[in-house]
Amino acid sequence: MTRPSSDLDPLNAEQAIEQAEASIDRHRKLSPFWWTVLLTSALLSIVLSIYVIFGLGNRIGTYVPLETEYFYSMLGLLLPLVFLLYQPWPGVGPIDRVPWYDMILAAIPFAISVYFVMHGNEILLDGWEYLPPELPAILAFVMWAIVLEAVRRAGGIPIFAICVLLSIYPVYADVFPGVFQGQPTTWEVAAAFHLFGTESVLGIPMNAFANLVVGFLVFGVALQFTGGGAFFLNLAFAMLGKFRGGPAKVAIFASGLMGSMSGSVITNVLTTGVMTIPAMKRVGFRASYAGGVEACASTGGVLMPPIMGSTAFVMATYLEIPYAEIVLAAIIPSILYYFGLFVQIDAYSARYHLKGLPVSELPRAMDVLKNGWYFIFVFALLIVMLMYMQREAQAPYYATALLLLINQVSARHRWNLAKLMDFLVGIGKLFTELAAILAGIGLIIGALTLSGKIGSIAYELVNLAGNDVIMLLILGALTSFVLGIGMTVTAAYLFLAVTVSPALVQGGLNPLAVHLFLLYWGMISFITPPVAIGAYAAASVAEANPIKTGLEAMRLGTIIYFVPFFFVLNPALIGQGTFIHVSFVFATAIVGVVFLSAALQGYLVGVGRLTVWGPVGVVLRIMLFIGGLAMMLPGGPLVGYSNLQLTIAAAVLLVPAIGLAWVANRGKPAAA
Questions:
Q1: Is residue 512 part of a domain?
Q2: Phi, psi (degrees; rounded to nearest 5) at 603
Q3: Widest pairwise Cα distance in the chain
Q4: What's the CA gap between 169 and 184, in Å, rounded?
Q5: What pLDDT score does 263 carry?
Q6: Low pLDDT (below 50) residues in the chain
Q7: Tell me, what's the pLDDT at 16?
Q8: Of the four listed, 268, 453, 629, 648, which is most buried by Cβ atoms within 10 Å?
Q9: Residue 4 CA: distances (Å) to CA of 9, 13, 20, 229
C-alpha cells in the first residue's frame, strides 16, 4: 500500500485517502456503457427516494406509489448492479467487462421487479402473499434465488450460508432438533411469503434502507467526494498532532468521525489508517500498538453519534422510536469508549516518553478551518434537524444540498461534470452492496416470522439462563460475538434483534439498552482475536504481526467489553433517569475509566509508572483495574448494590493503590 509523505497538508491527505479507497475497491472496471447504466440507476434511486420521502406525489398531484411498489422499484434499480459490479467469485471471471451470463442475471431481477411494481395493487388486494397466481409464484422462486446470489457476491460466503439455511428453514422445520423443530410449510407458501409479504424481503431491513438509510449514504459519499475525510483528518492533526502521542490521538478523532459516517470498520481502517499509522510509528509507537489504536478508533466510529453508520437507522425502524432517542442514548457509552482510548494512549506515551510531530510539519488549524469550515456548518445543520426538528428522513438531503452548494463556491473542491459522475457512481456502488445484504437479511427475518420461531427461541433462551438476568446477558453477548464474526454490522444486529432481543426484554431489561447491547457485542469481533478483522486490516497497513495487533486492540478496547453490560443493567448510562442520577453515574464512570486505563497501560498520569517493586506493581495494577470497574459499574436493583456502596468499595481499593504508586515513584523519574 502506498504510504503518504510526512507533509500533512490537505492535498496529501486527500491523495492518501483516494489511493487507499482505490486499493480496496473490489468492483469490476466497467465499460462506458455499463458505467452509464450504473450512473443512471444510482441517479434514479436517489430521485425516487426524494420523490417518496418528501411526498412529492401529493404535493404536485402526481402518482403516489404504494410502499411495496417503492421497495420493488429500489430492488429493481439496485439488485441488477450486483451482477454488473461483482465477479461470480473473487478472482474468477473477467474483471474488465461484464460477461453474457451476468448480463442475463442482471436483466432478470430488473424485469421481475418491474412486473411486481405493475401489479402492486393486485399483490395487496388479491393476497398474493398467501395464494399467488401461477406466473407470479414462479417469479417469486426466481427472485428468491437471485437475492441469495446477490447476497453471496456482495456479502460473502458466511452471510450467504446463513441466509440460505434460514430462508429455507420453514420448509424443513420438522427435521430440525429440539426447540428449532416446528410445523413445516410448502415451498410455494415460503416463496410467496418472502417476496409478496411485508415481513421478509420487503420487511424491516428494506424499510429502513429505503426510508432512512439512503439519505445518509448520499450524505456520507458527498462528504468523501468533497474532501470531508481529508478535512477532519487534517483538523485532527492540527489540533492534536503536536502533543505527546499526538498521531494516536489524531486517529481517535479522525477515525471516530469517519467511522460514524461510513459505517464500515475495514474501509475506515484502510483510509484514515494510511495517514495515522505511519505517523504513529514515526514518533515511536510499536507497529502492533499503532495498528491496535487505529482498529479500536475505527470500530468505535460505528457506535458514535450523530450518524453511527447505517445500523442505528435500522434500529430506529425496528424499535419504532425517533432516531434522536438512539443518538442521545449512544452519547455516554461512546464518550466512555473514546475517553478510555485517549487516556490509555496518553498513559502509554507518558510512560515511554513519546512526543508529538514537529509543529513545522503540521497544518495550521486556522488554515484547515478556512478551507473547510463549511463541513462543520453542515454537520451542525444535520444535528439540528435530527435532534430538534426530528426530520430524520429528510435531514441528510438538506445537509447534502447545502454541502454541495457551498462546495461549488469553494475553488479548492469545486466539482466539474466528471466529479459529479464519480459521485453518483460511488453512491451506486454503496447502495448496491447494502441493498443486496439487507434483502438477504430480510429473508432470515421472514423465515423466522413464517415459522413462528421468534417467540420460542426467546422462551428457550430465558429457560436456558434459568431466569438469571446476568446469565441471559452473557448468552446474548456470546451469540452476538459469534454472529458478528460472519456478518456485517447491520446484518448481525438485525438477526440478533429478531432472535435474542425478545428474550432479554422478557427478562425485564430496557428495550433500547438491549438493542444497543447487541450492537456493541456484534462489533466486538472486529478487535477480538482470533477473528479481529479490523485489527488484521490495520496490521496490514502497519506491517505488524496480526495476532499481536489483535491483542493490542483487545487491550486498548477493554472498555467496550464492560460498558454494554453496565448500561443494560442500569440505563442511566444511556441517559435514562433523572439529571442528577445520570450525571453522578457518568461522573463515576469517567473516574473509573481513568484508573482502569492506568492499570492496562502500567502508568497513572500524575503519579507515574505502576511497574514498580516487582510483584507489588502487578498487585497495584490489579487493584486499580478492579477499583476502576467498581467505579464504572452503576448501582441498581439488578446489580444488588447502590452507587454509594460501589463508590466506597472502589475507594477501598483505589486509595491505597494510588498512595503506594506515588511513594514508589517519589523522586524517581519514569525510565523510558
A1: no
A2: -155, 130
A3: 87
A4: 8
A5: 63
A6: 1-7, 9-11, 670-672
A7: 60
A8: 268
A9: 11, 8, 10, 15
Nearest of 263, 319, 219 to residue 490 by alpha carbon: 263
**Phi, psi at 392, each rounded to 5°:** -60, -45
Beta bridge partners of 158: none
**Side chain identity at 76, as an amino acid letter?**
G
* Number of domains composing the chain: 2
Q: Could you give the C-alpha distances from 438 to 85, 227, 497, 533, in angstroms and in order?
A: 17, 29, 14, 21
Domain that holds residue 38: 28-206
318 occurs within a structural domain: no
- Can you tell me which residue has the cell 490509555? 344
Could you read off the pLDDT of 15-55 as tens digits, one per residue?
665 655 555 567 888 899 999 999 999 999 999 999 999 99
pTM of structure: 0.83
Q: Does some domain include residue 586? A: yes
Rounded CA gap, 189 and 209, in Å?
Answer: 26
Cβ neighbours of residue 14 under 8 Å, at least 6 residues apart? 227, 229, 230
Question: Which residue, of 180, 206, 232, is where some domain finishes?
Answer: 206
* 467 in any annotated domain: no
Measured CA to CA, the distance from residue 228 to residue 272 in angstroms comes to 12
Q: Is 328 exposed, middle or buried (0-12, 13-18, 19+ CB in 10 A)?
A: middle
Q: Which of 184, 206, 228 is the last residue of a domain?
A: 206
Give me the pLDDT at residue 262, please: 63
The pLDDT assigned to 314 comes to 85
Say how far apart CA 21 and CA 301 lie, in whole Å: 18
What stretches of 352-499 show up as alpha helix (H) in DSSP?
365-387, 395-409, 417-451, 453-464, 469-486, 489-499
Q: CA dist 456 to 32, 199, 501, 518, 576, Å?
A: 52, 18, 12, 19, 30
